[in-house]
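Reading group handout, session on sequence-to-structure problems. Before we discuss, look at one worked example. The prompt was deliberately terse, the way you'd type it at a terminal:

> structure AKAP9 protein

The input record follows.
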Amino acid sequence: EKEIWNRERLSLQKSLKQADAELSKLRAELRSEAFLRELGSDTDNAVLRRIYGKYLRAESFRKALIYQKKYLLLLLGGFQECEEATLALIARMGGQPSYTGLEIITHHSKGFTRFRSAVRVSIAISR
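And the output record:
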């Protein structure tokens, strides 16, 4: 008789745990439904999700472009250093051109440099 009572007690405890789990699940579902009702209808929610998805996609593209820009600037800087070293080596060897740096080659007027900087700023702002 004691064994029967223990089996019945275990089965009742198991069913109680299942009922508690189902109760917590239903409460969470009820909370989420109430939240969705506060947000608005399903169509509004779908529109918000679509717009948010577009935002996340655009943000991802923006971050990718920033990474690409940094990489390309780093790559160009490496090429410029290599070119400067090559020109300095040629100048030491006594061949043409006899420049010791790129300052003479890329020397522009102050007005041109300011104009180019202003254009780059306007392009950066528009992006």
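Points for discussion. First: The radius of gyration is 35 Å. Second: The helical segments are 2-39, 42-93, 110-126.
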